[in-house]
């Protein structure tokens, strides 16, 4: 960590160049020869990435940023805030501290937070930033987190872990055992130090695969931001052996969409029907959860087909996802396509349909965009259909 970066002139230069082309700036002569040009460029690039993702850091004076990859991999403030609603108590230890965004929000709920980071430079940088953010109840520990957990020798209310995938695991099926730290291997040791564990994983991890590697799972939180799944949170409590609840959360600009259900719970079979007046497409968090039958029974709406994961109803309901009014429902054939969609402009989505959107667009000369939304799918009678819709939400 180079404290010379906090020079007022350098900070002003960084501020003025937010959003500038780094490749173009790199060709310029360094106006501050006492500091490496690459370090200044990194601050500009990382701070630019933080503007939307980490607005508190962006707007706080004298923040020093780590390498841009750390900013890319860290939690956003919005997802970190959600995580803080899960935990409670007096103490939490984060075994994979990173840039410290999660810990900053944990510190608003927990009396004492420990930030463990194996990289000493990053640990010092984060400690400096916490001081700028006035987060006085976070203690930073540099070194191997297992060694830190052992040396501190105390019972924590929570352990938080965000394991990173090992480089040699590229191309393999994403498993927790392929990450650092190896959570399945160390889970018993973790439970000796806390009764409650929260694990963050990438959405690439299959839920079924994760459950095979973990035990005592109570809740799985699927977190999406603006309809893009960002992370899975696995909530573990020692000796728990009850039903597992899937909680889907889609954080959008003006609200948060939530839906939850019990995994493997015997629920009512969904109802099926041909397209009615309204069409519903679940948000990405629900799509990741696999709770498609539960959506139908909970909202009392009909599925179009077992594998289409689109829903319909005669009356309009509030729904965690996109909502459309069906203007026309046509069979997918040459005659109907020529009449209704050939050479037109439309947004195309395929669900349980043999052709991909791009090939459909090319075949029928359909331009992208506009106010028309077309769903190419399969109905309950296994007929290929096209639903021509206008968007409500």
TrEMBL record:
Residue ranges of every copy of the THUMP-like domain listed in the record: 321-391
Domain (PG-1098 ferredoxin-like): residue spans on this chain: 278-320
MF term (GO), any: methyltransferase activity
Domain of life: Bacteria
InterPro entries named in the record: PG_1098_Fer, SAM-dependent_MTases_sf, Thump-like
Keyword entries, A-Z: Methyltransferase, Transferase
Any single biological process term in GO: methylation
Pfam families xrefs: PG_1098_Fer (PF22013), Thump_like (PF18096)
Protein name per its UniProtKB record: Class I SAM-dependent methyltransferase
Species in which this protein is naturally found: Flavobacterium xylosi
């Amino acid at each position: 960590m180079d404290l010379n970066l906090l020079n007022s002139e350098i900070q002003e230069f960084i501020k003025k160049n937010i959003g500038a082309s780094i490749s173009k700036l790199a060709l310029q002569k360094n106006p501050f020869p006492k500091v490496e040009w690459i370090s200044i460029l990194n601050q500009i690039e990382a701070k630019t990435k933080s503007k939307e993702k980490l607005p508190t850091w962006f707007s706080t004076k004298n923040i020093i940023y780590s390498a841009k990859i750390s900013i890319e991999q860290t939690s956003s403030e919005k997802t970190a805030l959600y995580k803080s609603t899960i935990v409670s108590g007096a103490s939490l230890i984060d075994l994979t501290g990173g840039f410290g965004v999660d810990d900053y929000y944990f510190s608003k709920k927990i009396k004492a937070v420990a930030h463990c980071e194996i990289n000493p430079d990053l640990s010092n940088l984060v400690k400096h930033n916490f001081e700028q953010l006035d987060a006085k109840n976070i203690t930073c520990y540099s070194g191997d987190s297992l060694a830190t957990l052992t040396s501190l020798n105390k019972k924590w209310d929570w352990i938080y872990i965000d394991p990173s995938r090992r480089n040699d695991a590229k191309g393999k099926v994403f498993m927790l055992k392929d990450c650092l730290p190896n959570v399945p291997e160390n889970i018993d040791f973790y439970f000796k130090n806390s009764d409650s564990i929260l694990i963050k994983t990438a959405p690439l991890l299959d839920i079924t695969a994760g459950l095979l590697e973990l035990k005592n799972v109570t809740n799985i939180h699927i977190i999406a931001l603006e309809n893009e799944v960002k992370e899975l949170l696995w909530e573990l409590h020692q000796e728990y052996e009850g039903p597992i609840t899937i909680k889907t959360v889609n954080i959008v600009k003006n609200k948060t969409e939530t839906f939850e259900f019990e995994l493997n719970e015997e629920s009512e079979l969904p109802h099926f029907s041909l397209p009615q007046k309204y069409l519903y497409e679940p948000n990405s968090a629900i799509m990741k959860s696999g709770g498609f039958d539960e959506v139908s029974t909970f909202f009392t709406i009909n599925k179009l087909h077992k594998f289409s994961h689109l829903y319909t109803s005669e009356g309009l309901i509030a729904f965690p996802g996109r909502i459309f009014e069906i203007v026309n429902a046509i069979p997918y054939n040459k005659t109907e396509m020529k009449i209704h969609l050939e050479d037109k402009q439309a947004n195309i989505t395929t669900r349980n349909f043999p052709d991909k959107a791009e090939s459909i667009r090319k075949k029928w000369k359909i331009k992208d965009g506009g106010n028309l939304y077309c769903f190419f799918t399969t109905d309950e009678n296994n007929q290929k259909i096209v639903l021509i819709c206008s968007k409500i939400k």
